[in-house]
């Protein structure tokens, strides 16, 4: 036989009640079933509220009416939907029960207090009424029913409101009942009876405990707990919406889940099922075909070593310390636990420093005042004589626990747990591992709880890696990047990478959607957006309110103002990716600050497109330096636009016309003077020099400009382009002289071993690797301790919106290394 228990939400209304009846019928076709029912949702809370209002002398009429209305609506719905349901009799029964409640309340009002024995009688009415209603419904559906009266058959010991069942005696009493095999058995949850036959309450989650008791007494093959979720999840769905439904967990794992705050069975219910080896299944009344979660003695830590993450919020930590004496006081932990136990205070977490000078323990914030009073009394003499410091209290804390039988054998779990919290910028206040080695717990701040839970769950459970992108600038590179992201989204999802563009920020407007913007229509949505100028504080709010895990800001502008905010971006928890060279070519102080903040905040600052567009220049140079290499000399064509322009000069095309063509193709900077002045190449050269370890400023770079000073002073770009033909003849002469010598002109950047950097026009012959470099290509030659005399040469397209966007895309994917703690 099986025991089925249905919780309050499962019987909250007529629709659910009828669904429960169908589940009972289907189960009864397979084997005999015993049903345990809770009160409808909110009824017990209403009854408790009524008692307290009566004691306080407040009006209770509306609360009583609300409670009675729940039953009235339930009966009306059943009468409409079930032929033969005895509506009149049940209505009369409810009226009688509520008259009895009101009579008890009159006595409470006179006394201005409510003894626990009376309180127990009031709050059990919900279960009592529900059993009679279910009996009437099943009889209307032609079923025979046997009702077990728990006050008579379950022997309770202990307190009126928190009692425990004597299983042996209760088994004897129940076995004395003659129950036909075809009968459906009904029993009210929560209640039992004392030796004298007084009504007793089984305490918190008492109906679940009732089901476990009945299963033990009747030697059931299984106990099913029906509720409003599909089973036990790896995490609270409110905190982690993508939590995973667990197929099975062991009794021991279930105990850890329950103890550390998961909405699952009470520990004593699990303990009872474990004691009698009764498998338990958690199932969903509204989704009965779902298999649910099995709780049993089977351990599958090889398949699922970690079962979940739980949390307890609003904790308080008390820290007791002593400068020198504490290591001699070997009984201090025992005194703490003993005094708390005597006061009825649950110590949820305790840890001791290795120096034995500090002991910290956590209790619920509701028990803070009592806990402090108990400690003050217990260690009064030690505090008085200065042997111990007075306790330090830290409020607004949360306990996060990772649970699973595999923790005992897998050494990497704790490392992943702590790394995840570190990557989420969550400070760990204290750490403890359960003595059974099935859980690891940390204490953190309440405010960090949700983001901490999400990042830990992402690392421990999810194969999907998430990147949340906020793009600043939708010019050539930004637009090309959005097109690539849109095109590759489905392909990356097959690789378990979820790219979400959560923000597109333009000069005058922005588009924000924390769940992801539809890139198929982003231009129209951006145009129609009412969100105005970019604001970092607003983005931080979006990230925090939506608990984004891996936010990335991508700067596809040439703005100095945006570049100067990178430190703020990183400190706020964003990765920063940019083809904008302004930050890395600002002052050396800011250059160093960026890297310090990135390290401190565990965020990535990626800028591989600063030099060479889509070529992996920065990454390769960093790898060489990290491997202990040393730069001896560098020479390179660093400007795709100038590579293109100088290639056109070889073909006899004037400089001005070549510049126009390059600009139309998107090879140049927005202002071509940044290219022709040599400033763009100088910035790239400075970045490479700094990556190689040279501490230089931009003014240290020697530049041979292509345009005279008088053209630089022209403020308007279009006006400048009109005057550019004035220097065509100068370059035509230089090109001709070079051709006479069998050479070509190339615009190169050079770094000497001494650190001297120069940007210049060079004549190269056919033996030089730069001779054939044109059409927008970059070529970089690194002469180093490892690569000498033959240099490491990188060559490829170094200009164009699509190429640069592809380089940014590669940097975006590099942020995923955060998951591995790289």
In short:
By secondary structure, the protein is an alpha/beta fold. A hairpin with a 4-residue loop joins strand 20 and strand 21.
Explain what the structure shows.
With 822 residues, the chain is an alpha/beta fold. The protein has four domains: 2-228, 3-Layer(aba) Sandwich (Carbamate kinase); 308-461, VC0802-like (2-Layer Sandwich); 465-600, NAD(P)-binding Rossmann-like Domain (Rossmann fold, 3-Layer(aba) Sandwich), CATH 3.40.50; 617-799, Dihydrodipicolinate Reductase, domain 2 (2-Layer Sandwich), CATH 3.30.360. The protein contains 31 helices and 30 strands. Strands 3-6-2-1-9-11-12-10 form an eight-stranded mixed beta sheet, with helices on both faces. Helix 3 (61-81) runs antiparallel to helix 4 (87-111). The chain is elongated and about 120 Å long. Mean pLDDT is 90; it is low at 818-822. It holds the Pfam family AA_kinase. Homotetramer. GO terms for molecular function: aspartate kinase activity; ATP binding; homoserine dehydrogenase activity; metal ion binding; NADP binding.
Key attributes of the depicted protein:
822 residues, alpha/beta, Carbamate kinase, VC0802-like, Rossmann fold, 4 domains, 8-stranded mixed sheet, 6-stranded antiparallel sheet, 30 strands, 20% strand, elongated, disordered C terminus
Largest sheet: 8 strands, mixed
CATH architecture of the largest domain: 3-Layer(aba) Sandwich
Number of domains: 4
Uncertain regions: pLDDT < 50 for 5+ in a row? 818-822
The CATH homologous superfamily of the largest domain corresponds to Acetylglutamate kinase-like
**Could you tell me the strand content as a percent range?**
15-25%
Fraction in helix: 40-55%
Which CATH C-level class of the largest domain is it?
Answer: Alpha Beta
Number of extended strands: 30
Mean pLDDT, all residues: 90
Rg, Å, rounded: 37 Å
Q: State the strand order across the main sheet.
A: 3-6-2-1-9-11-12-10
**How many helices does DSSP assign?**
31
What CATH calls the topology of the largest domain is: Carbamate kinase
Question: Structural class given helices, strands, pairing?
Answer: alpha/beta
């Amino acid at each position: 036989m099986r025991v089925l228990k249905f919780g309050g939400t499962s019987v909250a209304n007529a629709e659910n009640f009828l669904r429960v009846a169908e589940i009972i019928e289907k189960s009864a076709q397979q084997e005999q079933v015993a049903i345990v029912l809770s009160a409808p949702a909110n009824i017990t809370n209403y009854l408790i509220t009524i008692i307290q209002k009566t004691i306080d002398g407040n009006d209770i009429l509306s609360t009583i009416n609300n409670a009675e209305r729940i039953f009235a609506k339930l009966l009306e719905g059943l009468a409409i939907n079930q032929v033969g349901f005895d509506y009149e009799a049940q209505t009369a029964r409810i009226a009688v029960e509520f008259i009895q409640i009101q009579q008890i309340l009159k006595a409470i009002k006179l006394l201005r207090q409510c003894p626990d024995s009376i309180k127990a009688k009031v709050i059990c009415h919900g279960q009592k009424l529900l059993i009679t209603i279910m009996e009437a419904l099943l009889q209307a559906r032609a079923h025979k029913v046997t009702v077990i009266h728990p006050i008579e058959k379950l022997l309770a010991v202990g307190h009126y409101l928190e009692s425990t069942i004597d299983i042996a005696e209760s088994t004897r009493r129940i076995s004395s009942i003659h129950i036909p095999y075809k009968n459906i058995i009904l029993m009210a949850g929560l209640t039992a009876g004392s030796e004298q036959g007084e009504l007793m309450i089984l305490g918190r989650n008492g109906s679940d405990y009732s089901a476990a008791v009945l299963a033990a007494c009747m030697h059931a093959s299984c106990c099913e707990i029906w509720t409003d979720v599909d089973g036990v999840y790896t995490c609270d769905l409110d905190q982690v919406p993508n939590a995973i439904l667990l197929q099975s967990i062991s009794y021991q794992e279930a105990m850890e889940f329950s103890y550390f705050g998961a909405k699952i069975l009470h520990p004593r219910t699990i303990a009872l099922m474990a004691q009698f080896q009764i498998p338990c299944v958690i199932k969903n009344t509204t989704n009965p075909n779902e298999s649910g979660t099995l709780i049993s003695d089977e351990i599958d830590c090889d398949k699922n070593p970690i079962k979940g993450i739980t949390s307890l919020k609003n904790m308080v930590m008390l820290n007791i310390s002593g400068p020198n004496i504490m290591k001699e006081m070997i009984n201090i932990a025992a005194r703490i636990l003993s005094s708390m136990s005597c006061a009825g205070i649950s110590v949820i977490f305790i840890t001791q420093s290795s120096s034995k000078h500090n002991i910290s323990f956590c209790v619920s914030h509701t028990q803070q005042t009592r806990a402090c009073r108990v400690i003050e009394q217990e260690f009064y003499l030690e505090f008085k004589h200065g042997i111990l410091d007075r306790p330090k209290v830290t409020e607004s804390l949360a306990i996060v626990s990772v649970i699973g039988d595999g923790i005992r054998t897998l050494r990497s779990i704790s490392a992943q747990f702590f790394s995840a919290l570190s990557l989420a910028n969550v400070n760990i206040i204290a750490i403890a591992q359960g003595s059974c080695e099935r859980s690891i717990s940390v204490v953190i701040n309440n405010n960090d709880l949700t983001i901490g839970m999400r990042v830990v769950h992402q690392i421990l459970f999810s194969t999907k890696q998430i990147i949340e992108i906020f793009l600043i600038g939708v010019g050539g590179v930004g637009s090309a990047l959005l097109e690539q992201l849109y095109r590759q989204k489905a392909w990356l999802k097959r690789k378990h990478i979820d790219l979400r563009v959560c923000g597109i920020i333009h000069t005058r407007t922005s588009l924000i959607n924390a769940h992801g913007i539809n890139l198929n229509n982003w231009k129209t949505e951006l145009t129609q957006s009412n969100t105005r100028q970019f604001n970092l504080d607003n983005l931080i709010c979006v990230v925090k309110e939506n608990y984004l895990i891996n936010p990335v800001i991508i700067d596809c502008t040439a703005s100095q103002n945006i570049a100067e905010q990178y430190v703020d971006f990183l400190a706020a928890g964003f990765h920063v990716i940019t083809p904008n060279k302004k930050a890395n070519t600002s002052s050396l102080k800011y250059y160093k600050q960026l890297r310090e903040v990135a390290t401190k905040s565990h965020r990535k600052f990626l800028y591989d497109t600063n030099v060479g567009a889509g070529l992996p220049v920065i990454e390769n140079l960093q790898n060489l330096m990290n491997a202990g290499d040393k730069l001896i000399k560098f020479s390179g064509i660093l400007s795709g636009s100038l590579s293109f322009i100088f290639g056109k000069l070889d073909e006899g095309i004037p400089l001005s016309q070549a510049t126009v063509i390059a600009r139309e193709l998107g090879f140049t900077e927005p202002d071509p003077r940044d290219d022709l002045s040599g400033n763009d190449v100088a910035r790239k050269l400075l970045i490479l020099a700094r990556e190689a370890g040279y501490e230089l400023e931009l003014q240290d770079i020697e530049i041979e400009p292509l345009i005279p000073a008088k053209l630089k002073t022209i403020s308007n770009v279009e006006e400048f382009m009109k005057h550019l033909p004035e220097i065509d003849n100068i370059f035509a002469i230089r090109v001709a002289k070079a051709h006479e010598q069998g050479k070509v002109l190339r615009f190169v950047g050079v770094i000497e071993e001494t650190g001297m950097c120069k940007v210049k026009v060079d004549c190269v012959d056919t033996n030089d690797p730069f001779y054939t470099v044109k059409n927008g290509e970059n070529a970089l030659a690194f002469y180093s301790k490892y690569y000498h005399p033959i240099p490491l040469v990188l060559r490829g397209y170094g200009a164009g919106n699509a190429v640069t966007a592809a380089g940014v895309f590669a940097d975006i994917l590099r942020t995923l290394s955060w998951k591995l703690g790289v």
